[in-house]
Structure formats: structure tokens, C-alpha cells
């Protein structure tokens, strides 16, 4: 899937995609299974480089976006490929070995559904250093890359706005409690002067995938 995706958007994987200064490609993966690690390994795209984005759809699919040309293709694995593997690699009982063998020779159209797509990549999602840093008005944590929320005229982190994936064990154990007294609240640091003039509602991004 990764090789196909790279070929579709004209990136030679992994040499070009993984070159640290190159950052020519972003991959959106839609499942947190082994396929995601395989895509990362082949393309060199990683979460920490901001070249891999995880969308928790539970679908064995990925979208490959060439940041230079704007081309974007979504490649999804066909479920029927598992059944077809019997035909291409007969006599192999082990499912994993059978599929590995069969997928080497199966034509792309039997392995994947491929569609050209348009991806809006927000400016704050692009690789590179953080473009803005905001201090949460409530807890004092620093929030990077425009992930803050506006509530009652103040800027807060997603945890304080009620969107946390965890809950506090004990109210009086909250280590950040002292930080709530920090002044002044809701500082905004623009880290990239080029974006300063664009204001807080920075969201134009880059529309990828247009012909
Ligand atoms: Zn907060």
C-alpha cells in the first residue's frame, strides 16, 4: 500500500519521503494496526515529524499527499484480497505466509481501491517548527499549533475545555492546580513572524489534491 501510494503521488519511497529536510509528503492513516507501522517504515513518514497523521476510522486505508504538487490519493485495502490470496498462493496453510506470498504477485486492482482526493492540510498541521504557542487561561499549560479552544473570551487547552481522554484521579492531587494562579493568562506567542499578520483565526491551510 505504501509503495503504491508513493508511486501515485510521485515520491520515491523511502529515499525522498523520509529525507528529514525534504518532508515532501504527508500520509494520513486510518487505522492503528500493523499496516500503519509498515507505511511509516516504507515512507519514512512519522508522527513525530508531523508527516504522518492518524485518523481513528478503523479502516485499512491511507491517503498519500505530495506537499509540493498537491496531488493526493487515498488507497484502501480490499477485504476480498484475503480470499483471493488462496488462488495466487495455493497450498500455503499459514494465513500470514499465504497472504504475504500472494500480495507480491496480485495486481493492484485486486488489492486496493484507489481514488484521487482533495485534502485540506491546515497550516498548523504542516511539518516544521510550531507556528504559535498559547498559554491556557485555566491550567497554564502551553498549547502549540493552534490546538487551543476559545471559551468565554479566553483561550483554554482541550483538557480544560472538557475534551480530555482522561479524568483526574483525585481533585486535590491535581499537580497543575498551582499553575491556575499564574499570571498573565492566555498568552499568545507567535513563533513564526510570517503568520503574525494573518491573525488568530489562522486556518487557510493548503488544499491538496486539486488537479
Ligand atoms: Zn488547560
Main features:
about 210 residues, alpha+beta, Wheat Germ Agglutinin (Isolectin 2), domain 1, 3 domains, 12 strands, about 25% helix, elongated
Give the biggest sheet: 5 strands, mixed
From the 3D structure, determine the CATH topology of the largest domain: 60s Ribosomal Protein L30, Chain: A
What CATH architecture of the largest domain do you see?
A: 2-Layer Sandwich
Order of strands across the main sheet = 2-1-3-4-5
**Treating each run of at least 4 consecutive H or I residues as one helix, how many helices?**
8
Mean pLDDT: 83
Q: What's the SSE pattern?
A: HHEHEEEHHHEEEEEEHEHE
Bound molecules: zinc ion
The CATH class of the largest domain = Alpha Beta
Radius of gyration: 22 Å
Tell me the span between the first and last alpha carbons.
22 Å
Assign an overall shape. elongated
Tell me the total number of β-strands: 12
Domains, number: 3
Assembly annotation: single chain
As a percent range, the share of strand residues is 15-25%
Structural class: alpha+beta
- Provide the low-confidence segments as ranges: 197-204
What does this structure look like?
This protein has eight helices and twelve strands. It is of the alpha+beta class. It has three domains: 2-125, 60s Ribosomal Protein L30, Chain: A (2-Layer Sandwich); 133-163, Wheat Germ Agglutinin (Isolectin 2), domain 1; 183-209, no CATH class. Strand 7 and strand 8 (142-144) form a beta hairpin. Helix 4 (80-88) packs across helix 5 (95-105). Zinc ion is lined by residues 136, 138-139, 141, 156-157, 159-160.
